[in-house]
Structure formats: structure tokens, C-alpha cells
Write a structure and sequence with these properties.
This protein is an alpha/beta fold. The protein has helices at 3-9, 65-73, 100-103, 114-119, 141-145, 171-185, 189-208, 237-244, 263-269, 284-293, 301-304, 322-331; strands spanning 11-14, 42-46, 49-53, 60-63, 80-84, 106-108, 124-129, 132-133, 150-153, 218-222, 230-232, 248-249, 258-260, 273-276. The chain folds into 2 domains: 3-19 and 208-331, Nitrogenase molybdenum iron protein domain (Rossmann fold, 3-Layer(aba) Sandwich), CATH 3.40.50.1980; 37-201, Rossmann fold, CATH 3.40.50. It has 12 helices and 14 strands. Helix 6 runs antiparallel to helix 7, helix 7 runs parallel beside helix 12 and helix 8 (237-244) runs parallel beside helix 12 (322-331). The chain is globular, with a radius of gyration of 20 Å. Residues 302-324 are annotated as: Disordered.
């Protein structure tokens, strides 16, 4: 076993913020004009629903950091009326598309709602199920359609089966699907194809450096929660981040995106690494302090043999930072 693997097996990690497209993944000519209106009409499928666009939407409102950055990465700031997201300015400085935050209006850090999108005169809302869309406050594609507003659902969050479980494909493939589909909607297919190719190469390069004969350390993703931890299942970004970086995702059998489990389940699965998602009102350092002081976890290997590393905001959330997060975790 290499010293790198030994270090990884005895540390509590914080997910690092890294610029997802990394070196060279920012597509040149992002301000180019659409080639021709002859591209339209175009029909796409999104979460099983087919929609025909007669032209590119002009006033898109997005929900959350990763979803806004999908638009920024595609160079679509001029097609946006605003974004709704927590204030993560400190984590935005290293991403290739950081200029998007200055070009597009920040509408609110609160929960997205109908009033916000109506005030913004939105013609399309880009969000996910439970990442903006939800029946609880009747903010759904169906309710927006009645207001004359279109919707695009984040593919990672597509509903599956008869319940509210989410996820219909591996998380990275869902990201590539969204980039490709949005490329068609906005007539930037070449730009989308280059992003996908760059991201695939970044992931492949990261995997090439993983020791082939080393044990895969078991990894638990901690998002938040005291009574019950919020974590990632098989269909949220952290699953691919962990597994493609060379780890064994201890909650990979959960067929959902973001969900809760019991602390007993975490203890039983004995993770050797805990990756902390620095997201929300509670800081990553506060989350780490809780994990290290929570008595039921004292014999979990990652806590018992805790070391330190640093990661920061949003890399485990859905969005175009995920490939760089894989590379960073693989190095760790």
C-alpha cells in the first residue's frame, strides 16, 4: 500500500473547491453569436419529457450554484435573467467562468419561488427536483407552465419509478447529458461538445494516476444533519467523485440522489475517509468539529485516526466543478 493511500485512509477530508473545467476547459469564443436561426425549431428530451423550442430562451433563471455554473460554462450569460443561490463569493474565484457572476444578476439567496421568476420576467427556469422544484410550495414545471414559463429539470434529479426517488443515470453522465441538451437548446452544440470532451479527459487523466494495486478506501460523504446525516446516494455527484477518484462509496447502494440515513448505518459501514460538503449555513469546520466530538462515531476509523486535509465549497454538488473534484480527491 502506498503512503498516499495510507494517508487517505486515516483522514477526515473537506471537499476542495477546484475550477471544474480546469486548465483549458473554458471554451474559447464564449461570446460568439448564434450561427443561424435555421437551427430552430429543435426538439429535446429532458427527464422523459419532449419539448420543442422555436428559438433560444432569452431570460433564464437558475437555482443554486452548480446549475448557474452550467450556464456560465456554456457561455450563456446573455440568455439569463438571474440566478438564485447562497452567497459563495469566496469559492467562486478559481472557476474559469467566474465572470458569469458579475454579468448575471444575483436575484436572491432564499428559496426560489414564483414571485422571483415572475419579477425577473423569466421565460425558462432551470432547477432540479428538490433543488428548486417541489410540490410543497407548488413550484413545479406544471405550475410554471400555467404562467407561460418553461422549465428545464436538472437531469441528475430526474424522478425515477413511482415514488419521489431521483436519478436515472450515473451523475457524470447526467452532467454530460445536460451540457449536450442545453447545447442544442441554445445552439451552442460545439461549445457543449468541447466541454464534455475536456471533462471526460480530466476524469480519465485523474484515474490514470490511481494505484492499481491499492485497497480502495471506504468513504462517507457528510452534507449536514445532527439527528440524522444528510448524505449522497448513487445518483448524486459525490458518488462519481468518490468512486472515480479511487474510493469505495459506503452509501453507493442507496438508489437516490441526496437522502438521510441513520448514524447507526454510518457506524456499521466504518468509513475510513469522511468527505465533508462545505455547503449551507453550517461551516465545514463546524461540521468536522461535530463529527469528531459525536460519541457514537468515536470508533469509526475516519474519526478514530483523524488527520486533516482541506476541501471547500460545492464540489460535491451537481455542476461542472465535479470533474476537477474527482482529480483533487484522486490526488488526496
Amino acid at each position: 500500500m502506498t503512503s498516499v493511500m495510507r494517508t487517505a485512509r486515516t483522514a477526515v477530508a473537506l471537499i476542495p473547491v477546484v475550477a471544474l473545467a480546469g486548465c483549458g476547459a473554458k471554451v474559447s469564443g464564449s461570446e460568439e453569436k448564434p450561427r443561424s436561426s435555421a437551427h430552430y425549431p429543435v426538439t429535446v428530451s429532458n427527464c422523459g419529457v419532449k419539448t420543442t423550442y422555436d428559438k433560444a430562451p432569452q431570460r433564464v433563471v437558475t437555482n443554486d450554484v452548480g446549475i448557474a455554473e452550467i450556464m456560465f460554462a456554456l457561455g450563456l450569460e446573455k440568455h439569463m435573467a438571474g440566478y438564485v443561490a447562497p452567497d459563495y463569493r469566496a469559492s467562486r474565484q478559481d472557476v474559469p467562468w467566474k465572470d458569469g457572476y458579475g454579468k448575471v444578476k444575483w436575484l436572491s439567496k432564499k428559496q426560489i419561488n414564483k414571485e422571483m421568476v415572475l419579477d425577473a420576467k423569466a421565460d425558462l427556469v432551470f432547477a432540479g427536483w428538490n433543488y428548486g422544484f417541489g410540490e410543497g410550495d407548488n413550484f413545479t414545471p406544471a405550475s410554471l407552465k400555467k404562467l407561460g414559463i418553461g422549465s428545464y429539470v436538472l437531469t441528475e434529479s430526474c424522478r425515477s419509478g413511482s415514488g419521489n426517488e431521483r436519478g436515472v443515470m450515473p451523475p457524470l453522465e447526467a452532467l454530460y447529458t445536460d451540457l449536450t441538451t442545453l447545447g442544442k437548446i441554445f445552439d451552442v452544440e460545439d461549445r457543449a461538445a468541447k466541454l464534455v470532451a475536456d471533462f471526460r479527459k480530466k476524469v480519465a487523466d485523474a484515474q490514470a494516476g490511481i494505484p492499481k494495486d491499492g485497497k480502495r478506501p471506504s468513504v462517507f460523504l457528510y452534507d449536514d444533519g445532527r439527528d440524522k446525516p444528510v448524505t449522497s446516494g448513487a445518483f448524486a455527484g459525490p458518488h462519481d467523485i468518490i468512486t472515480k477518484a479511487g474510493g469505495d462509496h459506503v452509501m453507493g447502494d442507496l438508489k437516490d440522489t441526496w437522502t438521510t440515513v441513520s448514524w447507526e448505518t454510518v457506524v456499521d459501514r466504518r468509513p475510513e475517509v469522511i468527505v465533508i460538503n462545505n455547503y449551507g449555513a453550517v461551516s465545514a469546520e463546524q461540521k468536522k468539529e461535530f463529527l469528531l466530538s459525536y460519541p457514537p462515531l468515536k470508533d469509526v476509523p475516519a474519526v478514530k485516526h483523524s488527520g486533516s486535509s482541506s476541501w471547500t465549497t460545492s464540489t460535491s454538488s451537481r455542476g461542472p466543478r465535479n470533474p476537477d473534484a474527482i482529480a483533487a480527491l484522486a490526488r488526496y
